[in-house]
Amino acid sequence: MAKNVLFEIGLEELPARFIDGAELQLAEKTKNWLEELRINYASIETFSSPRRLTVLIHDIAENQATIEEEAKGPAIKIAQDENGNWTKAAIGFTKGQGKTVDDIYTKEIKGVTYIFVNKVIEGKPTESLLPGFDEIITSIQFAKNMRWGEQTLRYARPIRWIVALYGNQVIPFEIAGVTTGNISYGHRFLGSELTIENPLDYKVQLRKSYVIVDHQEREKMIIDGIKLIEEKNGYQVPIDPELLDEVRNLVEYPTAFLGAYEEEFLTLPEEVLITSMKEHQRYFPVKSGDGKLLPYFVAVRNGDAHAIETVRKGNEKVLRARLSDAQFFFEEDQKNSIEFYINKLSNVVFQEKLGTIRDKVNRVVRLSKEIAEKLATDSNTTVLVARAAELSKFDLMTNMVNEFTELQGVMGEKYARIFGEDEAVAVAIREHYMPTSANGEIPGTLVGSIVSVADKLDTIVGCIGVGLRPTGSQDPYGLRRQAIGVLRILTERKWDISVADLFGIAIELYRNLNLEHFNKETVVDDLRGFIQQRVAFVLKESGIEQDIIQAVTSGEIGVIATILKKASILSAKRNEESFKPVQEALGRVLNLAEKTEEVEVQPQYFETDSEKELFAVYEKVASNYRMLIEKGDLEGAFHELETLTDPIHEFFDHNMVMADDEKLKNNRLALLNRIALVLNSFADLNAIEWKQHF
Amino acid sequence: MNIQNMILTLQKYWSEQNCILMQAYDVEKGAGTMSPMTLLRSLGPEPWRVAYVEPSRRPADGRYGENPNRLYQHHQFQVVIKPSPDNIQELYLESLKALGINPLEHDIRFVEDNWENPTLGAAGLGWEVWLDGMEITQFTYFQQIGGLEANPVAVELTYGIERLASYIQDKENVFELEWTDGFTVHDIFKQPEYEHSKYTFEESNVEMLFELFAKYETEAKKTMDKGLIFPAYDYVLKCSHTFNLLDARGVISVTERTGYIARIRNLARSIAKSYVAEREKLGFPMLKKEAK
Questions:
Q1: Which member of A189, A316, A545, B220 lies 3.0 to 4.6 Å from B235 by CB, making a disulfide possible if both were Cys?
Q2: Is A574-693 CATH 1.10.10.10?
């Protein structure tokens, strides 16, 4: 009868967020491993809990599959002598494969006949291969690994026991000083040491020992528990799936219970209550039938209902302590005015060389106004922008944000409303931190977007101006992320502002401030390099290839939308077969133009019709090109450049550019250089590896 | 159980586990980890087992003695064992039983918490231990100390004494906790809590503190260059405490913190390196002791 195989890795409590991924990997890796080893089986089940990762293989074959493999020998010319007898080479080959010359057959490969034998690879007993499973266990990847004791293995958490059974036989191996056996452990407090006699009994034995090894079952127990509480009390408990995933992986035997907090805490902003419950305590907030927050929570205990009153009381005490802190802060914070907090910002250094946060806020106000001006917003918006910028950081001085740092901006919005600020200002205070991650949402309002860009510009230009450019993996001020934020807002809001101009505003502002450590000379170049890299990063993220990126980012960085459009035109063009003559023509111009600085074309030196013609076409193209660029018609503009192709080919066919006559030579080079200047104003076309796609 | 008996119980328990019982270290610090008995001794290959109570100053947590849960100075019970024993979780849970906490009556959980002390270039992986939702212990396997890889790995248990006591004594207010018969935390600590808070938030001489930071930093470097590790480390601790006072006063921004932290970290890093080098010169004497 086919046997079943069980592997259980016993661990100190795994981080909840690792468990699902690890279980999936275990299933995947086990399948691949068995397939590679040619070991058949009926099915695979996996289990997990905070303290174990388990795989159960049903009905595993006793042996690896035996297979026949074709072994290729020498060519028949070598394998047989002129009389048709097998040579030494042929005999040697068959012997090597454990066969005789009687087993030889022939096949033709590419016109040459070779000799072959069929080789049987005998399957080894499964039992002898199972100890190799240690490699599967150690190959599981976790987001973060650690070492322990004197072990060299890096793993999510220390391995404390391993169950490895083939039927009722222990499969012998060792990992990090732990030897396999048939002993498992139940729930830390409710369970006991268990001897697993039969892999199929695993799940039941663990359940009796208060461990539910099936995570879906644990999840169901939690949901059922919550439903029971909902029904009994007429509550509504919204189940946040992320929280549920986490909670079910924090427990081996879940018991949901209801806890309460004092009604007076409901005067706190919901965000504060929810952050306290969800983020800090992993509780599910409770709502009434009509969706209002109620002073209750659902927590999940790791264990049964015994002495649940004590557990409830303990949890309530912890939440009460957190909320009384919050309540105290909330009341204290409202005793002062917004101006009080703004003034306090003068006591806080933003950055040693860039002054206080108050100084920063003053700069952000000015930047915000200038950006609003560039965007030609109406006067009311400009007023709101200025106020939002002024209030952008005041909440950092409140007790609440000091305690709940994740609520910066959120509390600013709340307090601004309480203090009677305009709704648009309140919202912008929260939004000006956005996007908070590379792919995070950008501000939803115009006012929020402007202040967000101004705040980030100030940090980037200020830090780089005092020499704090990010290096390698070091970016303590988050300048890269902030630059991406600026670029994303520009792109997604389709602002018609050149990136260089935008940063120019901030540079100008800093120059006028005459800060001691701000390097007015180097900042422009340092910043250009930094912005180029960030723009390149954004382009790369949207799938643009490296050489195109270089071509469109080499000059001054203009309007982001334009850069993206140019990149897409060039990316498409270079893959078009019909574009070959164009790029050949343009390429020749660009190459020769590098040989000169001359731009003065003197028509009196023209000798041939083709050079006169090229000059005439050039003048027309150049003027059309400029007009189309002005209108924002990039495709039209690039098409205009393409019309130079034929005259260029004509020119090269009939003129010797590097003529002996210096005057002629220089004049022709100057003509090409003029053309090249127009071409390069579209993009640095020389950077493009045109040839690679043909 | 009053606090005094809790401490005695923990001391007895960990003493029975062959830990050296140390006394608190006499330079201000924010956490038991910063005592050289943990930070320096966790470095290098020599085995180490220690337990001690550490008064820990967190100026920013001062609340004039008015907040029921916050203190300028609280107490940690610190256990450090290198290399980490295989049964350390069980040893820890037994210590809770010794304090009268029956795990069957409670919900005890190990919740992922990756601890990091950037000022000391120290990082570790482990958990917060939750007792009915309250964090009572920080349980950490050191992975890096002073920027050096921990090898072998030391495990650190940090019990929050007042937290645990408020649970054991079922008190909502930390000042109501009984320290020993007839004396509460209020009796002993209320006045210093108020005065330290007042000093920290209102009266501290910011200019002087900035100056002191710079001076301590210079002295630490100078002393280190002479190969005097322990005195140099004392000055690093002083830098750290001075930074905490400035931070609590609200005169260092989030952005600026990074710079100060980097300065302290650089000192801690070079001290860690020198400590291991000096121990190596001595032939890692405690390693030999273990072998005997």
A1: B220
A2: no
